Amino acid sequence: MLKIHHVYVDGKFRTPHGTELSPLYNPATEEVIGEVRLADETDALAAIAAAKRAFPSFSRTGKQERIAILNRLSAAFTDRLDDLKEAMAEEYGAVRGVLDALVPRASGMFDEAARLLGTYEFTRTSGPNTIVMAPLGVAALITPWNLNIVFLAQKMAAAIAAGATVVVKPSELSATQTQVVTEAVDAADVPPGVINIVTGRGEIVGDVLTSHPDIVKVGFTGSTAVGQRIMRNAAATFKRLTLELGGKSPSILLDDADLTTAVPAALASGFLNNGQTCFAGTRILAPRSRLDDVLEAVKAAMPAFRVGDPRDPGTGVGPVVSRQQFDRVHSYIRLGLEEGARVLVGGAGRPEGLERGWFVKPTVFTGVTNQMRIAREEIFGPVLVVIPFEDDDDAVTIANDTPYGLQAHVFTPDVERAHRVARRIEAGTVLINRIFADHEAPFGGIKQSGIGREHHTYGLEAYLEPRAITA
Questions:
Q1: What is the domain class of 250-432 according to CATH?
Q2: What is the pLDDT of residues 294-313, one digit of tens each?
Q3: Partners of 386 in the beta sheet?
């Protein structure tokens, strides 16, 4: 059984001051696979102090020194690629297709940051003014358990490129992933105090990081409810915030869409990572004139989303992360039936032949209105809804009738029409005939899906502050 009994502070593995032991589970078997000793307030304060000590010298480093660090981090993550995949498969049931597509992006984040840093101008002139893009200071990076490796790399890469020092607080549910990441950071010979990693509970370590006056920036990916808590904690000291929060993303199938390709893509977006992604396309908007064809196409595409062992290459959907999430997802399936929706495929209960593990049948509801809770609330599991629309205007109205605004998808062979529709959708990202965003584009949400943007220049400048010097 794996025992993770350390934090990483000031360039060293240390035994935490905190004593709470939290079990780690394999969601495909429900078996305990390890335990993590959680950091507490004392550990958080030690990490903040280490990052604060490191900031003055690190913020004055030049481009080449930071690029060298980013290159070493990329190499270290690449060296541990198989270990990272194994951790994600065992710890939360990520399937092979997701791992092969997304895990290499972690090292790629450092490569992209290094390339950007090579051409980025930190000093500019405007009339008599010299504009200096200066590192903000010490940043707290708080990440969720799902795709934790990618989120960690994304945030660390931007902060390092900017010259900021960081305290990372990953989810306690992702301790195995974090273990591999921490070992990679240590192998990359990052200067002491620049990256500190403390795994602990949000209500303990997270609250310290988001309220402490020495933390000037918080980068967070997670739920909207936690994002609201972070905003309250950060308000007293006016911290800069990047919050990438929840979503209820629409996948709009326009009436000229090729259903043989558009429907499988829409389902793949909704079921991605076992339905556990903030940007999942969980609302499929279908033209009423082709509704029957869409529903038949959904049923025809479902065999590609077979549920089972995440290590089996033929598995399309693995388990949800925990018993708590298993129960939550099933509560929404029951709620959908109570609201009057109909199950097209899936439904309550484990898939046939799977007696153990937190497996949920990939479920698609029809007979859904956009006012039902299953159409408005983030379920975070493999549960989608099909909602009919009358025309393009109606599709846009339904797509925008949500408290969220993270991502949206438009499927049509008419690219000009797609752009006309996309420009009217209230979302940080709109994808046309694709399900993955491009990392040179800004990523983030509007409304209750968050504040600020990540990726490329937009992500780098989230850790910088423009300062004007006028002579």
A1: alpha beta
A2: 999 999 999 999 999 999 99
A3: 284
